[in-house]
TrEMBL record:
UniProt-listed GO biological process terms: lipid metabolic process
GO MF annotations in UniProt: phosphoric diester hydrolase activity
UniProt name for this protein: Glycerophosphoryl diester phosphodiesterase
Organism: Halanaerobium saccharolyticum
Domain GP-PDE, chain residue ranges per copy: 3-237
Stored SUPFAM superfamilies: PLC-like phosphodiesterases
Lineage: Bacteria, Bacillati, Bacillota, Clostridia, Halanaerobiales
Superkingdom per UniProt: Bacteria
PROSITE patterns for this protein: GP_PDE
Amino acid sequence: METKIIGHRGGVKGYPENTLVAFKKAVELGADGVEFDVQLTKDGEVVVIHDELIDRTMTGSGLLKDYTLSELRKMSAGEFFSPEFKAEKIPTLAEVLEIVKNLEVINIELKNFLLYPGLEAKVLKLVDQFKIRDQVIISSFNHYSLQTVKKLQPEIRTGALLMSKMINPADYSFKRGFDALHLHFLTADQEVIDKSHFMGMQLNVYTVNYPEAVIDLMKKGVDMIITDDLEMALEIREQNNNS
Ligand code: G3P
Ligand code: CA
């Protein structure tokens, strides 16, 4: 099957990560899907942001979980990147889903190290409201959180995010009933790709930002390439299909 090209936090060069403007552009560019990170505000709203601390990407400081949505909305979520994007606000999950709901792949990463109570159920509720169950894959570095997702809704696809080159990650993931491995691209060799497929799981890689690696991983047969540079990866796939 053809490798899917997925925009990491939106994945469009020249646009701030995890913002509505970036997701709109990703759709416009023809991405197969997008990946983004979700957390909970103090008042329990599911919002799209990568870091637990707001300092890097927002005009504020401290932990995201200590702010309500309306407090966060008073800050910019785009100015850190360029003054041009000053008007961008932190998006809610619902706002992002409204933009990306017709994409083939919607990869929601639960950034759940602070253990946001009820995050999994809230995300699943929105997935059902938007009727996008078949397009969604939920990933996390917190595998307990993925187990919670599976308990709440066994048919939703889950991907275990790993950073290090683990011994036998396919067995690890399969035993826990996950549907995919999401590996750092430098740890994805042919053996783990083939073994995951043999066990009926997807093998997806992040974050692939240079052409040689995109070409190599497509040849090796990964299912999804998550990239910060959608244009580059989509063009490589196009050239590959035409050669
Ligand atoms: O989901 C792949 C990738 O996004 C995981 O790393 O830190 O960019 O969320 P991070
Ligand atoms: Ca992520």
